[in-house]
Amino acid sequence: MERKVLIIDCADAPGLITKITGVCFAHGLNIVKNSEFVDNPQGRFFMRTELEGVFEPARLLAELQSILPSKNHTKLVDLGKKRIVVMVTKEAHCIGDLLIKSYSGALDAEIVAVVGNYDLLAALTEKFDVPFHYISHENMNRSQHEQAMLKVINSYEPEYVVLAKFMRVLTPDFVSQFPDQIINIHHSFLPAFIGASPYRQAWERGVKIIGATAHFVTNSLDEGPIIKQDVISVDHSYSVEELSKCGRDVEKSVLSKALQLVINEGVVVYGNKTVVF
Fold first, then answer.
1. Active-site residue 249, yes or no?
2. Long-range contacts of 64-68 (CB under 8 A, 24+ apart)
3. pLDDT of residue 192
4. Among the four 19, 77, 218, 223, which has the fewest Cβ within 10 Å?
5. Which overall architecture, per CATH, does domain 82-276 show?
6. Which of 9, 97, 108, 222 is catalytic?
7. Do strands 209-216 and 273-276 pair parallel, antiparallel, or not at all (unpaired)?
């Protein structure tokens, strides 16, 4: 018996759930878990269904297409570990957390490589028997540096690329290589404090909460579809350094939770938003 996830995104219409589950039943598939959501203002229907049984994927998808509204987005995907390449700069807390969780089985990701524009995190990465690739940005323009990184990343054929505090803005050419596959952790509760030095921005505004946001990367800086967010309380006595120190725990927690949601096929992107099942 196999287990797969059926994801459907289409125009809303009466009777969709009955029709979809009827096709699955006709294929002898057992519904293990089912979730759906309707965006009423947009007239959009979303459904995530975990199925178990013996699959004929092509025939199943063809029969679903015949009963769904036109211009739908329908896919049948396997559950299980996904191949991840992580990009880093100097900070260890997010990559350290991902390595530990991957090693222990708490995260269904196989970290196949780590790529850094500094070599400071090589020793940490290699403790987990994960290859570390140091690709310095010195004496390279942005395009040359990204091409060097892409050559390494593509050699691992990752399903997702994770920016674990990778502190360089990626160009549209790089982003276009991995549509809805690059996940970034930003150290603020977006849309507040976009860009550099968000903890200093937060301190200057005297905020009473700080947070972190995991989102898909697009060509608009820190404005891609949001996957997961969280916050903690702070007060007037915190310095910029103390805000940053407290924020690290939120950052690593939000990133790993977001990544697990994506790996479990629990996130559907539409427009600049997500449906998270």
1. no
2. 64/6, 64/8, 64/20, 64/23, 67/19, 67/20, 67/23, 68/8, 68/10, 68/16, 68/19, 68/20
3. 81
4. 77
5. 3-Layer(aba) Sandwich (3.40)
6. 222
7. unpaired
